[in-house]
Amino acid sequence: MGLSVAIIALDEEDDLPGCLASVGFADEIVLVDSGSRDATASIAERAGARVLERPFDDFSSQKQFACDSTTCDWILVLDADERVSPCFGEAFSEALSSGEAAAYRIERRTSYLGRVLRFGPWSSDRPLRLFRRGSASFGAETVHESLRADCPAPVLRGAWIEHRPYCDVREHMEKMARYASLWAVQERARGRRATVLDILFRPQWRFFRGAVLQLGLLDGMPGLAASVSSAVYAYWKYLALYELSGRGTAPR
């Protein structure tokens, strides 16, 4: 009843050491690298991880490949910019002993601008990340991928994931632009189109929801910045989709 950790990575030499150090209790670590040009692969190998190379096609396929490449009965899926709490190993052992479930969601605490956010658009995040082999799989999303379980998935008690998504504002902007483009391609392939109203009003709604309804303002400047970021991301997503819908192309 061992535990495998599945990670995908590309040029993650800054975040990866902390992630790997936090899961030293695991029986196996599998890292799927998609062509890193930095020391990502060597860092993982020195930490005892099994490193596999696979060209990147989309996030869901890459993470499913990582999960399928593990060998233990239980699988924990992490991103390189995440790390588990010090009590995670104990919490996993207790969950295993209880036999309560075959899949678990885990509380995720996001740090932004030096503060762990308690409110706003990045709070109340409990993604499915821990499961017994065969009880969960990734969907068809190319971005904002998520695991889906074929059984009830309670929240794992006594542990959490610490998420440090951006080392600075520049990285935040670059990731936001990349994910917005990927999302637009994904949604256009599904037949979705964007309108001018989407571009005008969705960002405003995202800001109001994050800052006011979800109390993001109570986190001070980091909470306000996260709410603004959510609005800007919505703007770029729907603008990119509008362009792909053929409405943002200049006549020739």
Layout of secondary structure:
Elements: E1 3-9, H1 16-22, E2 28-33, H2 40-46, E3 50-53, H3 59-68, E4 74-79, E5 82-84, H4 88-98, E6 103-112, E7 115-116, E8 128-132, E9 136-138, E10 147-149, E11 155-163, H5 169-189, H6 196-213, H7 220-244
Parallel strand pairs: 1-2, 1-4, 2-3, 6-11
Antiparallel strand pairs: 4-8, 5-11, 6-7, 6-8, 9-10
Helix pairs in contact: 5-7, 6-7
Structure description:
The chain is an alpha/beta fold. The protein has helices at residues 16-22, 40-46, 59-68, 88-98, 169-189, 196-213, 220-244, and strands at 3-9, 28-33, 50-53, 74-79, 82-84, 103-112, 115-116, 128-132, 136-138, 147-149, 155-163. The protein folds into two domains: 3-163, Alpha-Beta Complex (Spore Coat Polysaccharide Biosynthesis Protein SpsA, Chain A); 169-244, no CATH class. Helix content is 39%, strand content 23%. The strands form two sheets. Strands 1, 2, 3, 4, 5, 6, 7, 8 and 11 form a nine-stranded mixed sheet that branches. Strand 6 and strand 7 (115-116) form a beta hairpin.
Give the N-to-C terminal Cα separation.
62 Å
Question: How big a fraction of the residues is strand?
Answer: 15-25%
Low-confidence blocks of residues = none
Q: What gyration radius follows from the Cα positions, in whole Å? A: 19 Å
The CATH architecture of the largest domain comes to: Alpha-Beta Complex
By DSSP (H or I, 4+ residues per run), the number of helices equals 7
Count of separate structural domains: 2
For CATH, the homologous superfamily of the largest domain is named as Spore Coat Polysaccharide Biosynthesis Protein SpsA, Chain A
